[in-house]
């Protein structure tokens, strides 16, 4: 089991013009990791994979495990081998990220973050599924629903990407959240405080898998797309 490789199917850049077709099944994705994040075909909600179980948070706020034939246009996955980094007591979201970067010292490497604990004033989002012909990422992101909880226990799974890879992934942190009781989750927008344990896992290899069987992807001209601008507006 390879624990030093981060597998990525698709890129965030391909979502920008609306290349949202599902081009990899969950069954195939799970061959490359038991932990991860992503989205479904048509930006169908937010995914978080924990211990080999892929959970989808829908735009209605429901959380359920998806089947092997569920497809994704974009996802990250890896085999978990997290190492303890620190414990935090009432850290804000900004402080958490600053402390992680300062202690990890992996600014120019890909690494995953796992935080288990109790979060307060947490906000997440999920995008509603769109159908072909697909909208652009900017248009589809307007169909998101935002959810919040005052206090909840759960797990943050995220990835840090170096700025030199911005557009392929999100330069910086890209986090998803799942409540311990599976009642709440989604793409993490922010929180007020977290108390819990932080661990990280660094990767020396990025395995970038491209949907070359998809004709729309093969033929698209990305030169006119505002890739980094649209990605940042949609993901932050």
From TrEMBL:
Associated pathway: Polyol metabolism; (R,R)-butane-2,3-diol biosynthesis; (R,R)-butane-2,3-diol from pyruvate: step 2/3
InterPro entries the record matches: Acetolactate_a_deCO2ase
Domain of life the protein comes from: Bacteria
Gene3D superfamilies: Hypothetical protein, similar to alpha- acetolactate decarboxylase, domain 2 (3.30.1330.80)
GO annotation, biological process: acetoin biosynthetic process
Catalysed conversion reaction: (2S)-2-acetolactate + H(+) = (R)-acetoin + CO2
UniProtKB keywords: Acetoin biosynthesis, Decarboxylase, Lyase
Known EC number: 4.1.1.5
One of the record's GO molecular function terms: acetolactate decarboxylase activity
Enzyme class (EC, first level): lyase
Name listed for the protein in its UniProt record: Alpha-acetolactate decarboxylase
Family assignment from sequence similarity: Belongs to the alpha-acetolactate decarboxylase family.
């Amino acid at each position: 089991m390879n624990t030093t490789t981060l597998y990525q199917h698709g890129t965030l850049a391909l979502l920008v013009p609306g290349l949202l077709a599902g081009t990899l099944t969950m069954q195939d994705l799970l061959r490359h990791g038991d932990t991860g994040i992503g989205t479904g075909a048509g930006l169908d909600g937010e995914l978080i994979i924990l211990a080999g179980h892929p959970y989808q948070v829908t735009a209605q706020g429901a959380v359920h495990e998806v089947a092997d034939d569920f497809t994704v246009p974009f996802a990250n996955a890896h085999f978990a081998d997290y190492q303890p980094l620190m414990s935090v007591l009432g850290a804000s979201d900004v402080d958490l990220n600053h402390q992680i970067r300062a202690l990890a010292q992996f600014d120019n490497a890909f690494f995953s973050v796992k935080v288990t604990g109790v979060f307060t004033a947490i906000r997440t989002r999920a995008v509603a599924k769109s159908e072909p012909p697909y909208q652009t990422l900017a248009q589809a992101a307007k169909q998101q629903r935002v959810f919040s909880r005052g206090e909840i226990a759960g797990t943050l799974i995220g990835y840090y990407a170096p700025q030199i890879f911005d557009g392929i992934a999100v330069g910086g942190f890209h986090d998803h959240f799942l409540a311990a009781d599976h009642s709440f989750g989604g793409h993490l927008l922010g929180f007020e405080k977290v108390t819990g344990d932080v661990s990280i896992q660094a990767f020396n290899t990025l395995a970038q898998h491209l949907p070359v069987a998809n004709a729309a992807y093969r033929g698209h001209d990305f030169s006119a797309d505002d890739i980094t601008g649209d990605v940042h507006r949609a993901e932050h």
